[in-house]
Design a protein that fits this description.
Layout lengths: L24 E5 L8 H14 L4 E5 L5 H6 L3 E2 L7 E2 L21 H4 L7 E2 L5 E4 L3 H7 L4 H9 L1 H6 L2 H6 L2 E5 L6 H9 L2 E6 L3 H20 L8 E7 L7 H12 L16 H5 L18 H19 L5
Parallel strand pairs: 1-7, 1-8, 2-6, 2-7, 8-9
Antiparallel strand pairs: 3-4, 5-6
The chain binds adenosine-5'-triphosphate and magnesium ion.
Length: about 325
């Protein structure tokens, strides 16, 4: 692995230097229904923006660690069937006496640890991987402590001077849930993307996420800029399927959705699924043939998001 890892040590005494209004743009990809393309979109956007020369930090908040697996050789805890762990960090040296386990993950942000993002094969892209057991532990924080220990924590991390110096953009992949970690992603974000498939349950999920967005706007510190929706992104669309065409049409007519809806429709295309595979060749949809429809759709989607970021996207 090439590139440098950055140590972002933080503790409550550092919070004083964090100022409101984070300079790093932060995109949270959220939708509590599973399988709609959160991880796929996060990965494609991370590749796109880093290829465009932006310094990107991809953060995996999902205990399934699917995003992390795309960029790192994750390891598996034999004692825990769902235990996906980050690999040893390239900076770690056996015998380090600092008490560091050698693995760094997004969960460390919530446990107030040291955070060492990992370099990836893509220049300009670093990843803060998930850690299955520890992220599940974060979700178990007591109700009375959740605001202080979870909801605000990722925001406090992303406004640290070290993070603002090292990155231009953070992209956060979330679990199919509306729990504390998803709320912390919305709290940290400057922009949200809500992918949806054109089926009844994901559409219900979309409206649930819009509700969560409004709640976030009401509980967010008023000195911060509002959370913008960069795109409601239709995905896995199949032309000629009446259900998909009918639901897309109704979203276009819905006054709460229409102005936030991406004009780019991502169709169900085998190239997106194939590029998700660890052994994929090419590894990125951007390396497909110039006229490949999946590549063209991915570029159109990323360009639309880039425009939403520069224009600010839609606020409340
Ligand atoms: N446009 C597409 N065409 C074909 N396959 C796709 C497309 N988008 C996503 N997929 C595939 O669909 C599956 C689900 O996508 P993905 O994992 O991105 O969803 P998710 O919302 O992150 O799921 P989860 O909620 O479980 O985290 C994956 O196998 C992915 O490769
Ligand atoms: Mg996912």
């Amino acid at each position: 692995m090439a590139g440098k890892a950055i140590q972002c040590y933080f503790s409550s005494r550092h919070y004083g230097i964090a100022f409101w209004g984070c300079l790093v743009q932060v995109i949270a990809v959220v939708q509590n229904k599973g399988g709609v393309g959160k991880t796929t979109l996060t990965r494609v956007l991370a590749e796109y923006f880093s290829r465009k020369g932006r310094r990107v930090l991809a953060i995996d908040l999902d205990a399934q660690c699917n995003l992390s697996r795309r960029f790192l050789e994750m390891e598996y805890d034999q004692a825990d069937p769902d235990g996906v762990l980050p690999p040893l960090h390239p900076l770690f040296q056996e015998g380090d006496d600092g008490g560091w386990s050698g693995r760094s993950s997004s969960a460390d942000v919530y446990f107030q640890g040291e955070v060492y993002p990992y370099p990836t094969r893509i220049e300009g892209l670093e990843v803060l991987p998930g850690h299955g057991p520890r992220l599940r532990q974060v979700e178990l924080v007591r109700v009375g402590d959740v605001r202080e220990q979870v909801h605000n924590r990722l925001y406090e991390f992303l406004v640290l001077a070290e993070v603002r110096d090292a990155y231009d953009l953070a992209l956060i992949d979330t679990a199919p849930a509306k729990g504390p970690l998803t709320i912390s992603a919305m709290r940290a974000a400057t922009h949200a993307i809500i992918p949806t498939t054109l089926e009844p349950q994901p559409i219900e999920g979309l409206f649930g996420m819009l509700q969560l967005w409004r709640q976030e706007m009401h509980s967010r510190d008023t000195s911060r800029p509002p959370l913008k929706i960069a795109a409601i992104q239709p995905n896995l669309f199949r032309k000629g399927v009446a259900l998909h065409e009918g639901l897309l049409d109704s979203l276009r007519k819905d006054t709460a959705v229409a102005s936030l809806l991406s004009p780019v429709i991502l169709h169900q295309r085998i190239a997106f699924a194939e590029s998700d595979h660890a052994q994929a060749r090419p590894k990125s949809v951007f390396d497909l043939a110039e006229k490949d429809p999946a590549r063209l759709e991915a570029i159109a989607m990323c360009e639309y998001v880039a425009r939403s970021l520069s224009e600010g996207g839609a606020g409340l």
